[in-house]
Amino acid sequence: MAYSTEALRSIAFVGHAGAGKTSLVQALLRAAGMNGEARSPEDPLERKYGHTLSASVHHADHRDCRIYLLDTPGYPDFIGHAIATLPAADTAAVVIDAERGIEMMTLRMMELAHARGMCRLVIINKIDQPGVDLAGLMRQVQEVFGRECLPINLPAASGREVHDCFFSPDGDADFSTVADAHRALMDQVVEVDPAFMETYLEQGDIAPEVLHSPFEQALREGHLIPVCFVSARGGAGLPELLDVMVRLMPNPAEGNPPLLYRQDAEDGRKRTPLRSQPDASRHVIAHAFKIAVDPYVGRLATFRIHQGTLRRDGTLYIGDSRKPFRVAHLYTPQGREQAETQQGVPGDICAVSRVEEIYSDAILHDALEDASIHLEPVPLPQPIYGLSIEPRKRGDEQRLWDVLQKLCAEDPCLRVERMMSIGETVLSGLGEMHLRCVLDRMTEVYKIEVETHPPKIAYRETVAGEGDGHHRHKKQTGGAGQFGEVFLRVEALPRGAGFEFVDAVKGGVIPRQFLPAVEKGVLQAMESGPVAGYPMQDVRVTVYDGKSHPVDSKEVAFVVAARKAFRDAVQKARPLLMEPQVQIDVTVPDENMGDVTADLSSRRGQISGMRKGHDTASIVSGLIPLSELNGYQSRLHSLTGGRGSYTVSFSHYEAVPAATQQKMASQRREIQDE
């Protein structure tokens, strides 16, 4: 059955691991009469690790509408899959475990959804568990996320039932009253519209059915965050949650539009904000948010259509590529299965297979004039755990590299790089479990055995000051020679700023066609810094002078000149080695608090706060160098009798102590001497 854009909803289920997102999605599918086991056959690795490892897309048909349900991982090591899914949804449904309350990933996903301008919905799951304090949890939600979090339904009969509070002003509840909740919702909704506010003050109430427009406005502005109560296992609240999604959550024309921009063809740093139109008659604009690579089926790209109508056998372009591909098959995802469909309209989530050129975050379009359109990138955590990896069987080097490229295409937070300075291939991810899962997938899916070496820290290099560099590349080989001369300046940028290339050349001393070659040479030099051979970042390079030859100047000459001029400048700009600092949250029994904080301090940790956790536990938060966490799990186990746990997430890079920099520089020189 084909649905119009107005009849579509897309909901991303996000939150902490164990909150019950996957079981809730499956329960909603069953409640809607769909296939509740759509994720089967279960991924054996997910069964092994007990966690959802990647995002999956399902759909449920309810009340003449189609709801796309995006199930995402909640374990911190796999957060990249969850974050990458956000642009495909209009609403972020933040799922909270009624027993455990608000946890680290709950906070993080709520903040990310707010930063993207998404409408938000809080779902409190497992409400029928014995002893849960739902009234206390509702107060905690409002204290942490704001008074705009209001229950749109309330549990009754000890969590075995749920009563609507928006469309119905009467009913019983386990805490508060339906009447009070109804009044609070009405007060909050009419505040965004002066006309409705005036009517409300005069009449004392307004029929909820006529408040759809201000309700959607309140959602878009973050003025209202509805809270729903549900039990995925017991079934309480499932029909009511489906009704809330269809009747009250935004369709693609009502939610905040995606953050698109058009890049200037002449100056790539100039961007013009662009608003897509959820109009089926316009050019197609779609965004690929998930890539899956199957060893037998090939690459499957899942994307959200933001504008236009995409039909089977139509053609699409990928990003700025000028080569179109034909949509031979168009699919609607249902978990691990794909159903063929004839077309997709704005708001639909579709998939195409066997198009190897599609990459994660690509914009798909059907008009060459839209090649400069991009989606504002979602800030992904940086991979900070690394493993040196090599094939167990000699001769499998190329096959290993091909497999690693496929795995990186699927996972937005997985990186592989060849560290020329140490002659190793390094695979980097978000944590030990992340990399362990990747290694298991290589063995079980791709049947390739590898050897790994102890984890390596993803150090980076930068400069602390400013320096000028110069190099003239001149080569004569009998015929046409090579000539290029470059003067440039290197200076530090703020932490996390990345790289900036500035063209300050006057009078055409370096012809414009050779400036991309200069930038290419600089980027090549940045792959291996002067201190310990790690990639460089947070630098601005300004090219201000040079020379060329009308016959001998070539691209390769300016690449070489720029590379050597950059290295010359960096040596004068006080190069620095930087290490990743991570935000750490340690859950610890109250009686072990002192021992744990003292141990963190001894590891160069900076304690930033403490807060009450579940039951008799507390959560210690702070910053700590990643290098200091080697063996920390065993130490924490010892200090807390096995009752402590911790999570980390990347924060920023900071300079290593001077003694550490000298030691690592000496080690590199020894390797080079050998």
Automatic annotation (TrEMBL):
GO MF: translation elongation factor activity
What are the start and end residues of every segment in region (Disordered)? 256-277
Read off the PROSITE patterns from this record. G_TR_2 (PS51722)
Against SUPFAM superfamilies, the record matches this protein to: EF-G C-terminal domain-like, P-loop containing nucleoside triphosphate hydrolases, Ribosomal protein S5 domain 2-like, Translation proteins
Q: Name one Pfam family in it.
A: EFG_C
**What domain of life?**
Bacteria
**Alphabetized SMART domains for the sequence:** EFG_C, EFG_IV
Q: Which UniProt keywords apply?
A: Elongation factor, GTP-binding, Nucleotide-binding, Protein biosynthesis
Known CDD domains for this protein? EFG_III, EFG_mtEFG1_IV, EFG_mtEFG_C
Instruction: Indicate the segments forming the Tr-type G domain, all copies.
Output: 6-253
Quote the NCBIfam families the UniProt record gives.
PRK12740.1-5 (NF009381), PRK13351.1-1 (NF009891)
The record's function comment reads: Catalyzes the GTP-dependent ribosomal translocation step during translation elongation. During this step, the ribosome changes from the pre-translocational (PRE) to the post-translocational (POST) state as the newly formed A-site-bound peptidyl-tRNA and P-site-bound deacylated tRNA move to the P and E sites, respectively. Catalyzes the coordinated movement of the two tRNA molecules, the mRNA and conformational changes in the ribosome.
What name does this protein carry? Answer: Elongation factor G
